[in-house]
């Protein structure tokens, strides 16, 4: 018998017409739009999540190393497959860090994020257990 674990979080999407969905998870609200009009598409949202996850990790590691980060920005180029499924096939994430921080510390923070901490990057693994189900009402 397998023990069922409570989920770490839940979310709900509600279709609002066209390719737009309003989402909520706890107190968080989000609009996703396959047309990129009312909000990001799901793939664009995933790219935002990846960049955000790594940026948060990088700031956290640098600050925990007792360095003062005055600012941090990142730019990401995302390349997608030409045919369906148009998955992300390449990412170029560039950080701009301002502060009195040795370059090797920034490089190490990025490496730690990618190799150990960034849960979004590690969640992009196709080996994730993924189940679907449905109900139809009339």
Q: What is this structure, in a nutshell?
A:
This protein is of the alpha+beta class. Helix content is 31%, strand content 27%.
What does this structure look like?
With 138 residues, the chain is α+β, with helices and mostly antiparallel strands. The protein folds into 2 domains: 1-39; 41-123, GMP Synthetase, Chain A, domain 3 (2-Layer Sandwich), CATH 3.30.300. The protein has 3 helices and 5 strands. The protein has a 3-stranded antiparallel beta sheet with strand order 1-2-3, with no helix packed on it. Strands 4-5 form a two-stranded antiparallel sheet.
Major sheet size, sense and barrel closure: 3 strands, antiparallel
Largest sheet: spatial strand order? 1-2-3
Percent of residues in helices comes to 25-40%
Q: CATH superfamily name of the largest domain?
A: K homology (KH) domain
Number of domains: 2
What would you call the structural class? alpha+beta
What's the total helix number?
3
Which fold name corresponds to the CATH topology of the largest domain?
Answer: GMP Synthetase, Chain A, domain 3
Mean pLDDT: 93
What is this structure's SSE topology?
Elements (H helix, E strand, L loop, with lengths): L11 E4 L4 E6 L2 E6 L8 H23 L6 E10 L7 E11 L4 H15 L1 H5 L15
Antiparallel strand pairs: 1-2, 2-3, 4-5
Helix pairs in contact: 1-2
Task: Write a concise keyword list for the protein shown above.
138 residues; 2 domains; alpha+beta; 31% helix; globular
């Amino acid at each position: 018998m397998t023990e069922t674990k409570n989920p770490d979080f839940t979310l709900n999407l509600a279709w609002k017409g066209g390719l737009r969905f309003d989402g909520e998870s706890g107190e968080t609200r989000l609009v996703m739009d396959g047309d990129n009009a009312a909000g990001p598409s799901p793939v664009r949202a995933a790219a935002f999540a990846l960049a955000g996850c790594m940026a948060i990790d990088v700031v956290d590691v640098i600050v925990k190393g007792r360095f003062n980060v005055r600012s941090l920005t990142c730019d990401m180029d995302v390349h997608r497959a030409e045919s369906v499924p148009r998955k992300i096939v390449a990412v170029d994430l560039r950080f701009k860090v301002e502060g009195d921080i040795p370059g090797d510390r920034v490089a190490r923070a990025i490496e730690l994020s990618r190799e150990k901490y960034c849960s979004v990057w590690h969640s992009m693994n196709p080996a994730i257990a993924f189940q679907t189900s449905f109900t139809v009402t009339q």
